[in-house]
Amino acid sequence: VAIIGNNGTGKTTLIKLMFGKEVPTKGVIALAKGIEIGYLSQEVISSINNTLYEEASLVFEDIIKLGEELTVLEEKIAKDPTNKELIDTYGKKQQYFSSHNGYDYRYLIEMMLSKFGFKKEDFSRPISSFSGGEKTKMSFVKLLLAKPELLILDEPTNHLDLSTIEWLET
What we know:
two-stranded parallel ribbon; single chain; mainly alpha; about 5% strand; 2 strands
């Protein structure tokens, strides 16, 4: 869905109403309970001191921690291989890890960063060293990696080149 209109006609105000950043003078804004909404803004970036790769990795923070838990469980199982409770716990956590990109999140991060024009050597640069447009691209990468059910973009193509816009459209 696209909302198109002249400047000053209320497109951004409508978005702010959806997020509760503004209160409607009439009517009600109703969203499905528990819906995850992604909104493109500079606020998506957690810290300008993070490297590009660190910032993108924050999307998978819970999965990365779960991977560390699995490693600890593997060590415990190696010491006590007949402990059924440990094995069951490991199996459940491993299934969740696998179904939530635990084995391929690194690939997804690198693929998405490269689709938005970042080079491998950019991955270790701090966010503070990037231009405003590059920071917007980084925000876009994080939102797309998070896969929200609803993605709201206010003038999303302002800082994107034609090839990135075409990729995004597909």
